[in-house]
Amino acid sequence: MISKQERYEFRKIRSRNRLFENGIHKIRLSVYRGAKYIYAQVVDDLKGTTLAAASSLEGEIKGKLKSGKSIDSAKQVGALLAKRAIAKGVTEVCFDRGGRIYHGRIKALADAAREAGLKF
């Protein structure tokens, strides 16, 4: 029987393959949603570098909210990540939700990044 983690890995690979079909490789906004915190980073896969990163563990965000796993913290992470990415010259990305569904904290992070100026 396939474990829950193996099913998550399969969904993650499947969604990432859909991003890269047809040979189009854009800079990717990758999101990881843990049990307590949410992490996001802007990655250039062709160079293999992380251009910008943000998480709900950072002092700027952690001090303002009582929980790192709330939708409000995801919104702040998205806005902070977009601000950092735009400072590095990145304005257009493709959204990699990992193996998670586009709902809740993942959607809140994406919407906040869009409002802050990232296009995807």
Write the layout of secondary structure elements.
Layout: H1 4-19, E1 28-33, E2 38-44, E3 49-55, H2 59-62, H3 71-87, E4 94-96, H4 105-115
Parallel strand pairs: 1-4
Antiparallel strand pairs: 1-2, 2-3
Helix pairs in contact: 3-4
Compact description:
With about 120 residues, the chain is α+β, with helices and mostly antiparallel strands. It has four helices and four strands, in the order αβββααβα.
Structure description:
This protein has a single domain, classed as 2-Layer Sandwich (Nucleotidyltransferase, domain 5). A hairpin with a 4-residue loop joins strand 2 and strand 3. It has a four-stranded mixed beta sheet with strand order 3-2-1-4. The protein is α+β, with helices and mostly antiparallel strands and 120 residues long. The protein has helices spanning 4-19, 59-62, 71-87, 105-115, and strands at residues 28-33, 38-44, 49-55, 94-96.
Sequence of strands across the biggest β-sheet: 3-2-1-4
Just name the CATH architecture. 2-Layer Sandwich
For the biggest sheet, the summary is:
4 strands, mixed
Query: DSSP helix count?
Result: 4
From the 3D structure, determine the CATH topology: Nucleotidyltransferase, domain 5
Provide the structure class: alpha+beta
Task: Report the helical percentage.
Answer: 40-55%
Q: Order of helices and strands, N to C?
A: HEEEHHEH
